[in-house]
Amino acid sequence: MSELRSIQKHSRTEHFDVFLRQGFILSGNFSYEGLQANPNLHQVFENWNQQFGPNMLPSQTALLCANEQLCVIDSCSNDTPSIGNYLRSGSSWKVADQGDNPLARCESAGYLQLMNGDDWHVRELKAYLIAVTPILDNHGKVQFYLGLFTQSRINMENLAQLLYSLALSFQSSIQNVEERRKYDRLNNLHHLKEMESKKHVILFEASKKLLAKIDVHSVLTEVIDCLGRVYPNTRVDLLLSQDNDSTNLSVKPLNFQRTESDIRTRAFMEGQVIFEPTLRGSASSSGNIAAPLSGKQGVYGVLYMEFTDELIDASDLQFISLLADSAGTAFENAKLYEQSNLMINELRLINEITKQLNQSLRLNEIFNSASSEILSIFGADYSCILQNSKDNDQLIVQATNLPAMFHETFTLDQGFSGLIYSSKEPIIISDYWSNDKVTSSLMQRTNSRSLIGSPILVNGNVEGVILIVHRLPNFFSYDNYKLLQVLSSHIGLAMTNASLHAEVKRMVITDNLTGLYARHYLDEQANLMQKKDFCGSLIVVDIDNFKKVNDTYGHQIGDKILIHVSQIIKSSIREMDIAARWGGEELAVYLPQVSKEQAIRIAERIRRRVMEETQPQVTVSCGVSDWNWEEDKISVESLFYRADMALYQAKHNGRNQIQIG
Prior knowledge:
disordered N terminus; alpha+beta; GGDEF_dom; Nucleotide_cyclase; six-stranded mixed beta sheet; Diguanylate_Cyclase; Diguanylate cyclase; single chain
């Protein structure tokens, strides 16, 4: 044991001798990389101050630590108020600042310097003994300087011995700090490993949950909750490029008006994760991350995160990228499921509306039914269905829940209906108040802000226009816009069917040549009117010598004469009267609730006009009969028989006259 002590004492003596010749050399058992940095030196001095501090310093003694540039890092004093300014952190001991001084001499010589205050020009330090030594690593590189100032009554040898003891204690503090740094590094590494393991577990669980969800809102909420568990102090925004109804405050629309250099825009356009660090050139840094939510069919949005207090490294970027990929796939699946359900509901709705529209073959009923169904489906405030009137090139309001506009007409270039008519394209207006370039009577009367409109196309021609409005802005979605297009095509088919049915019905009861009703229609209507009216009259008209006209001028002229006479008859009677082609050149007119005297005057007007207006000139003979409720036996056959006998009498008496039956 005594031999070991002797060896240790000898080793320490040798180390002290080296200290006197070269300065204090630190133990080679530690790495002193980065020790010269001011924060590290300050940390070492604080550790030394906590462990030893003034207790190691005699009275009226101070110790300072200076870096390689002779700038004071920290100091410790025991009753040395007169030299406080020289010990203050940040004070420079360069020759240029303090003149010739022990720290400058130590820097220049590279070994221990001892100096009496009398050798120095500074008055406050005249009474002090000063010792300064460089602190070297085991490669001989200066790490920092220790300077000892004392007014105690000790000699230079004891001063050097005291500085050596203080340097030894400083080495102990350096080693403590180094051990602490190693511990912190290992602890941080362990923490990072734990965090990485936690991220893998959370990512695995989140991926399972995300892929199991078929609701868009649930997918978005799970992504935000997952990121909140890993990064509780980070702001997270989910920016979507499509319409969404999520109530989560972190879910927002993606703003496409940002500059191209914005990382959110870049992530969406480039389809890759983009990190914008606060510190450039660092392995880990706080900053902003934008990760695209990508599926197989495209990019649906951007996951945007702002890190202010947490440092981001490569593992964080990988975790966020993988989570964004899973979220994008899950969002796409949920969106496809949502769209498939929407399509099923739309098809069911279209089927029901089509059935309802096809139940009626009357245009006014189709318009009214379509208007009420559209209001219900879209939750709109007002609807308006306009039909193209080909007779006068106008759009007529045929159905609306705004009574003031019913049957109102608009030109083909007026308002939104005119815009749709001319372009043959549907439109959607999010806010009319902020974009009122088109003057709209419907929007102004109803004080509405949102509008969707669609043309009713039949074989490529615009047969009408549908307009739907709401008082709130941004009320209608793109899905509403598409659905209205589909419904308008079915409404167009229903209109076509009703028009065709009306045309067929008209053709059945109408004579193709003259445009008058067919005989069976006149028979049916006269029979019905005899059951509800109190009187009526019948005029039978026959063109005189019509065979001679055909033989002289040909059948085309004969047909023209027949058409002309039919037009004269139609223009000579009321709208409620029924004119029909009786057969060949014979025509008939039933006059409901008209007496015999009135019928004779009408027949005379027809006879005279035919004689005056036809070219070549022809004449007509007329037979008139009537009925009233006082007769015992009322029948269509009796009425027609008497008129026919009267016509025969007119022919027999020389033609171009009227006889009463």
